[in-house]
Amino acid sequence: MTNVTRDFFIGLSNSKFLNAQAKKWGFVLGADKFVAGTTIQSVVDAVKEQNAKGISCTLDNLGEFVSDKGEANQAKEQILAILDTINKQNLDCHLSVKLTQLGLDIDQDYCIANMKDILDTAKQYSIFVNIDMEDYSHYEATLDVLNELREHYDNVGTVIQSYLYRAEEDLSRLKDMRIRLVKGAYKESEEVAFSDKQDIDRNFIKLAKQRLLGNTFTSIATHDHHIINELKAFVDENAIGTDKFEFQMLYGFRNDMQDKLAENGYNFCTYIPFGDDWFGYFMRRLAERPQNMNLIMKDALYT
Ligand code: FDA
């Protein structure tokens, strides 16, 4: 993919105007392939379908870069309702949250207070909450919030992006915490992040191996079969128990591979986004893989 194409979709993902407009459009452009629905009930069906195949899930109530307390409070209430639903329906499912949805850009203490409300309820139900990692301008603040939360809670974790030069250093500080390892989805400056795909992939493999040799659970989140195959071989060679890690992929991506990994005895978790704030998430997926656009165009032509 050219950098121009990638930058184009990342640019769209950041447009406040388009993100706001898209909430009114409903799902268009084939977004329903990658977003499970708008309501809690629609997403429960998707979780149950995965659970029936032995696949666990993590739910993401879509939304980010919120600048209004009313909206952040609403997001928190929705997340609390999801936790109740997971508990009542006994779903094999945890939660993924974005701190900018919960007020990080408004006031850090307010965001921490929202997270504490969420983590208190989640802890009561023994549900794990993962903090997604957003763009680098929110990185330090996210780690600050996490450090405050981890003093009080053991049901919280976060994401480390292998495109960041500092990923290894941060991972070593977080070696006792459950972590999701990803490549990184935002456009970052060369001052802080690798831009070359080979460097990002090499770092991902290096960090994943370090984590697998450690003692704490790791979610290896990638659709890249080259990396997955290399790590499967590494796990075999080093007799690493399958209870120490899981593979994660996004809802709607490589479904056959998701099912196969679960059938072959690997822990597998599907990241399921839902809600009407789908535009930014969807544009980042197109930035990663414009072929997703081809799939959508084919559908549009043949249905
Ligand atoms: P990448 O896009 O690098 O593709 C590598 C190769 O894999 C391709 O060349 C192709 O061969 C194959 N491939 C990939 N997708 C395919 C497909 N659909 N069909 C066929 N072949 C395919 N990012 C972030 O910054 N913060 C976060 O919190 C998260 N959270 C997160 C959770 C989960 C569960 C996932 C899977 C990803 C994220 N990400 C993320 C996104 C992540 O950083 C990254 O942008 C994407 O996963 C894309 O990178 P990949 O490693 O998946 O493959």
Automatic annotation (TrEMBL):
Q: Enumerate the catalysed reactions.
A: L-proline + a quinone = (S)-1-pyrroline-5-carboxylate + a quinol + H(+)
Alphabetized InterPro entries for the sequence? FAD-linked_oxidoreductase-like (IPR029041), PRODH_bac_arc (IPR008219), Proline_DH_dom (IPR002872), Proline_oxidase (IPR015659)
Query: Which Gene3D superfamilies would you find in this protein's record?
Result: 3.20.20.220
Q: Which UniProt keywords apply?
A: FAD, Flavoprotein, Nucleotide-binding, Oxidoreductase, Proline metabolism
Q: Which intervals hold domain Proline dehydrogenase?
A: 45-292
Q: Identify the EC number(s).
A: 1.5.5.2
Enzyme class, UniProt record, top EC level: oxidoreductase
So, what pathway does this thing act in?
Answer: Amino-acid degradation; L-proline degradation into L-glutamate; L-glutamate from L-proline: step 1/2
- Nucleotide-binding as a keyword? yes
Which cofactors, if any, are listed as required? FAD
Q: What is this protein called?
A: proline dehydrogenase
Source organism per entry reads Lentibacillus juripiscarius
